[in-house]
Amino acid sequence: MAIIYDNNTRTLTLHTEHSTYQMQADKYDYLLHLYYGRRTEGCMEYLLDFADRGMSGSPYDAGSDRTYSLDALPQEFPVQGTGDFRSPMLVVRASNGAFGCDPKYTGHEIVRGKYSLEGLPAVYADDDEAETLKVFLRDDRLGLDVTLLYGVLPSLDIITRSVIVTNNGDDNLIVQRLGTACIDFAGGDYDMITFCGRHAMERIPERQYVSRGAHVIGSRRGASSHQYNPFVILTDRDTTEEAGRCWSMQFVYSGGFSAEAERDQYGQTRLQMGLSGEKFAYPLHPGESLTAPEVIMCYSNSGIEALSHSHHKCLRDHVCRGKYKDSARPVLINSWEASYFDFTGESIIRLASEAAELGIDMLVLDDGWFGTRDDDLRGLGDWNANEDKLGCSLAELIAGVNKAGVRFGIWMEPEMVNEDSELYQMHPDWALAVPGKKPVRGRYQLVLDLSRKEVRDWMYEQITSVLDQGNIEYLKWDYNRSIADVYSQTAEFQGRVMHDYMLGLYDVLERLFVRYPDLLIEGCSGGGGRFDAGMLYYTPQIWCSDNTDAIDRLLIQYGTSYGYPSCTVGAHVSACPNHQTGRTVPFATRAAVAMSGTFGYELDPARLTDEERLSIRSQLEEFRKDEELRRTGLYYRLTDPAKDICAAWAHVAEDGSRAIVTAVLQNKHGNMTNMYFRIRGLKQGAFYKVSCSLADEEDRVLPADALMEAGIRVPRVLNEYDCAVWHLEICDRM
Ligand code: GLA
């Protein structure tokens, strides 16, 4: 049993293989958080510190007991209104304007399997892989019922959380804030690691000490955002990749969010994650419910890499769905950096023929094939092929590409509209805009109001009518601006629009998933502006960044790897000088970096040298040979590319039988010092045949323990931006 209730202590304990989580319904029926850490038995009530809390308040039920204060006690679901002045998970306002609620424990239920959430993406698992705990809280005065949901996946050390609030009273309530997960740490001294950035430089790790006050990241942009990823880690101050305690939260949601680590007056730390409170005020009429999107949590006492491995497995096996969940993804050639808006049907067929000749699987026709879109000023919303530009119909183009020998994929940005489009002329009110206020434009476009059903139905029909025109096996789903103006023409209450927009998006994506189970959708948002576990439920890969420069990608993919597995990371080889940075990087390095993601090309092979074209063939061969190892192996960050000259990482088969280690030299200096990096994840005591991609490095048989203890030597022949790739295979000692 992963979930246990002890009637004597009124504790609920959740066990995974290596962790334990415990809560307790106390004498006043408040639900206190007792423990989240390494696996243990017993009751952790002894950790509670009942001291005279002076100026902190006490609940009425506690009478004159000043040692009982919810301002100081660790809680499972802290709400506003109980005298806890730290950041609450729930803020409710009644119709008379009064704030506050006071939900108390009323019971619980333990069920086999993993709960699912209506209308929202969530971790799924077979009944023998997971258990669910439902804890019921009730505020009698308001008639407000709160169900706390916990999903336990023991073998992955994963615990998920969600919350459903239901108005079973007769007042019209407004939910002003709803968090999903909260962990109160009664003691300790922590760092918080967040993944921050900007367009073309996403998810760069940042580690900071959690001092007094609230350390908050999040997104108010209507998308999870380039700027802050909805994945955070709390660690002890000395925790490293390989050792130490750490806790994580990952939001299964693609819209606005907030994540916060708050250190309070008593040195306690509250970590929480949930919906953004910005422009949020969700009406809850009698009988209505609101569900908080899911948070995936993990604990490790063996460093951050173990945490990453759990999240990787959870996303790969329990969030991603469909045909490509467990199979090789097609190697793509994407037309964007090959020709931007400047193409014809003929040039696309030529690109397809070249791709076929090189052995590439699929051509993706990016932006510019529809409406009057020859630049990014116009056309979004008009999803009819521009036959004048293509010189043929879309159906003919698809057939031509297939005939040339590759599969066909297409780009759409369904959530958007340009003012210069037929759609906007017909339905200006379908764009989100505040009446009387000139809307903020982003890339010259406005956002369609997906909170409206008729807009979603129209969108679904547009997408299906494109997809039904031929053998389209891939869709790149783009989203290239933030939501600035929040006003829906039909919403009874504007505070619900941001969240209803996301529910609307998920509704359309789900309908498409049901209708096209074999379609591969790649998410995208100006590159990686919506790279989150919510999108991965519908799109098993996401274009990681618009920055295809292999050297910048070292850091971007390094940061991304903390929370997300390689198989979700869209990565392509592009031309040099690179279009975003102007940098020139060896072809082999560009390929080695892209192979750590979904792999593909984003260039025009006709502009390559014969030698480069030949190397594409060998790159494809190399990629396909080890595709499964890269997709399913455990990922190890061997160095930190923000600090170390040599960026190195490894994919290691879970049974330790094989590994691929990649290293890129980011800088060259005169008279270089010796450089080594340690490999991890190999089988102790074993020997490995080690072959290096560099011509003058001989194959050797080397001991795993030395490779993990002293490391591998970075070859001196490497020049700036060169790479070396080692293949390791377990073997007999020679
Ligand atoms: C975004 C995407 C790019 C490309 C362009 C097309 O920037 O991230 O990959 O599809 O849009 O306009």
CATH topology term of the largest domain: Beta-galactosidase, Chain A, domain 5
Strand portion:
25-35%
Which molecules other than protein and nucleic acid are bound?
alpha-D-galactopyranose
Count of individual domains = 3
Assigned CATH superfamily of the largest domain:
alpha-galactosidase from lactobacil brevis
Going by CATH, the architecture of the largest domain would be: Distorted Sandwich
Q: State the helical fraction.
A: 10-25%
Which residues sit in consecutive blocks of at least 5 with pLDDT less than 50? none
* Structural class determined from secondary elements: alpha+beta
Overall shape: globular
Radius of gyration from the alpha-carbon trace, in angstroms: 27 Å
Q: Give the N-terminus to C-terminus distance in angstroms.
A: 47 Å
In order across it, which strands form the biggest sheet? 6-7-8-9-19-15-14-11-12
Describe the largest sheet. Answer: 9 strands, antiparallel
Mean of the pLDDT scores? 98
The CATH class assignment of the largest domain is Mainly Beta
**Total beta strands:** 38
Structural features, described:
- This protein is an alpha+beta fold.
- It folds into 3 domains: 3-318, Distorted Sandwich (Beta-galactosidase, Chain A, domain 5), CATH 2.70.98.60; 332-416 and 444-476 and 509-627, Aldolase class I (TIM Barrel, Alpha-Beta Barrel), CATH 3.20.20; 646-731, Golgi alpha-mannosidase II (Immunoglobulin-like, Sandwich).
- 19% of the residues lie in helices and 31% in strands.
- It contains 13 helices and 38 strands.
- The strands form 7 sheets. A 9-stranded antiparallel β-sheet has the order 6-7-8-9-19-15-14-11-12. It has a 9-stranded parallel β-sheet with strand order 28-27-26-25-22-21-20-30-29.
- Alpha-D-galactopyranose binds at residues 336, 366-367, 376, 411, 478, 480, 524, 526-527, 543, 546.
